[in-house]
Amino acid sequence: MSVIATHVDDSTDQLREKLAAEQERPDYAIDPYFYRSHLVHELELEHLVFKSWIYALHTSEIPNTGDYQLLEVGEDAIIVVRTADGSINAMHNICRHRGSRVCEGTTGNRKTFVCPYHGWVYDLDGSLKAARETHIMPDFDKTQLGLKAVRCVEYMGMVFINCDPNAADLVASLDKMRIPLGAYDLANAKVAHRQTYRIQANWKLALENYLECYHCATSHRAYARLHTLKDLEEKSAPVVAKMLENADAKTGIAGIAQAHTQIYLDADNFGTCAHTMRYGLYEGFVTGSQDGQPVAPLMGHFKDYDGGAGDFQMGPLSFMLNYPDHCVLYRFLPRSLTETDMELVWFVRGDAVEGKDYDLEKLTWLWHHTTLEDDYIITRNSLGVNSRFFEPGPYHTEFEEALQQFIHWYLHTLSEAV
């Protein structure tokens, strides 16, 4: 865990002053205060992270009754479990007696969740099944003491959670990109590999890095060889236009290149971001691999490669880059003021067999190496941003447009919170 100097005289008044100052320079990177303040971090968790829809897992990862995974955000943990009726349930990993965690392993299978402290027993649906020696307490009501529920929805095999009981409908937003996302048949896909990269930096620095490709040409040489996003539109437009013209015919999917963007302040509701577009790969490359050549069987309904890739956003913190033969999901979760978990999930066809239909090292090579490069640049960005001498500079008008949309939403959310 990295250590930084923080403001010992921090206050809500100081936060208001910093927010007001940001309004005076809306096209500039934000003040280092927002990466260093413990007050800001707590407000982010309460008013932004825990009120947003977050990707949790794929349904194939918990196929049996009692299968579960833990999702850890900040200092909290959320249990996502397959219940006896086949549905998927999410709940806080906090005993309703005196707060002990009732589940320790990050994955596993349980018939019940038992508090290790005083032995309270919870069913898979979170209801309190037994509480030792409470028969002498006449007002004790088990029905009111189940594990606290977390909102949970499934969409195309992907499970999303939201800790806000009043959270808006995510599915309605995602449905606006049903055709291009549905082409990959993710409901019948499987997770080939998942890996968590612990980044020693504030979560916003990791997310900001993902939201811009200004750094791609200099920091990601292997990625930049293949993907047109590393260039200005004036250079990449002919390549993309050619791909889009033939995308439907080559893939066999009508509407594969449909575009839709409602993110951050433009989202239907808070935390329900939905975005998709199809962009081009350079000639001679068909997928995201070390050499740009196929690494797995075609996904879902694809008939052939079109020289393109699908870019998706689902909620504020979850993203996908989908090639015709595999998909890569990114998720960003704050763990502390100076630590972020960047989770990558690689998907392949549900019937693909490792060692026969795909080689795991070749499948994961590009984005594993790109993420290691990201780790390097993000941590060094963090060291500079946390210098007392850092002075924010202007955003790039094209490359950092999506990043600016995030920052405007972020500052708006904090302003509303105070």
Give a description of the structure.
The chain is α+β, with helices and mostly antiparallel strands and 418 residues long. The protein has two domains: 54-152, Rieske [2Fe-2S] iron-sulphur domain (Rieske Iron-sulfur Protein, 3-layer Sandwich), CATH 2.102.10.10; 169-417, Naphthalene 1,2-dioxygenase Alpha Subunit, Chain A, domain 1 (Alpha-Beta Complex). The chain is 28% helix and 23% strand. It has eleven helices and 17 strands. Strands 11-17-16-15-14-13-12 form a seven-stranded antiparallel sheet. Strands 4-3-2-5 form a four-stranded antiparallel sheet, with no helix packed on it. Strands 1-10-9 form a three-stranded antiparallel sheet. A hairpin with a 2-residue loop joins strand 2 (67-73) and strand 3 (76-82). The radius of gyration is 22 Å and the shape is globular. It starts with 11 loop residues before the first helix and ends with a helix. The model has no long low-confidence stretch (mean pLDDT 96).
